Amino acid sequence: MLQNKKICFIGVGNMGEALVSGLVCAKATVPENIICTDISEPKLATIAKKYNVRTTTDNIEAIGGSDIVIYAVKPQILASILKETADSLDRTKLIISIAAGVPMAVIESCLKKDLRLVRVMPNIAAFVKESATAIAAGRHADKGDIELAKAIFDSVGKSVFIEENVLMDAITGLSGSGPAYIFLIVDALADAGVKMGLSRENALFLSSQTVMGAAKLLLDTKEHPAQLKDRVTSPGGTAIAGIHTLEKGGMRTTLINAVEAATTRSKELGDAMIKNFAEDNHY
């Protein structure tokens, strides 16, 4: 699907490089079809050497010959980059933004034209090709555009299409911020193992592998978490004793509250960005 598409990355920071790596390693496209831009020439030299892709510091030049343009810059500079490059964009190109927390309304306002626009929320696990990614489409993106976006982001994990753009804040609160919650859980489990006498190294390995194994079991079997939990807990056994303690401590409620808090914060930041952009442009 992507083999004949020219793909441009505006910005190759951590997430941008993860995507380049995923596309090249998965052979979803050939390196010659990828061009990357960045303000750092040493970074571009590294990317070119590592992945054999083309690079330039000129955003306009890179966009000119591209079919798909992926904005992978930091959220705080996305607006200025969009304004700089808007004249180079038209309906022949698929435009993808992975800037966290930047609403579709801000992107559309910056571009001031009808474009095939897609907003994507990957997460940090893209670095190990296991990102949980959500894809939302703008008004002028069609089914083929969504399929192209999925092909790109499936190279660094698994993706889902979200019908309603307003749900992207919830995605940010769940899967975007979610790895941080899991890191905290893994660290706490490792601390518990150390408290019970395990070495730090073994405790951290066992807690990490346990989380990965449990997640893989859920994904492979497609069973409900409660069903798998019941398979682990025997009457009067160790697991049910541990679960009782977790429930008593409010773990379930705390995690729900964490996702809700992160979702609310994402919406607040997005609303502030819309307001600031409107003020800057005297709307």
SSE inventory with pairings:
Layout: E1 7-10, H1 14-25, E2 34-37, H2 41-51, E3 54-56, H3 59-64, E4 68-71, H4 75-85, E5 94-97, H5 104-111, E6 116-121, E7 131-137, H6 143-153, E8 157-161, H7 168-176, H8 178-195, H9 200-221, H10 225-232, H11 238-248, H12 251-280
Parallel strand pairs: 1-2, 1-4, 2-3, 4-5, 5-6, 7-8
Antiparallel strand pairs: 6-7
Helix pairs in contact: 4-5, 5-12, 7-12, 8-9
List keywords for this structure.
Rossmann fold; ProC C-terminal domain-like fold; 2 domains; 8-stranded mixed sheet; 55% helix
Provide a count of the helices.
12
Which CATH top level class of the largest domain fits?
Alpha Beta
Q: Which fold does the CATH topology of the largest domain refer to?
A: Rossmann fold
* Sheet of most strands: 8 strands, mixed
Q: What is the molecular shape? A: globular
How many discrete domains?
2
Quick description:
By secondary structure, the protein is α/β, with parallel strands linked by helices. It has helices spanning 14-25, 41-51, 59-64, 75-85, 104-111, 143-153, 168-176, 178-195, 200-221, 225-232, 238-248, 251-280; strands spanning 7-10, 34-37, 54-56, 68-71, 94-97, 116-121, 131-137, 157-161.
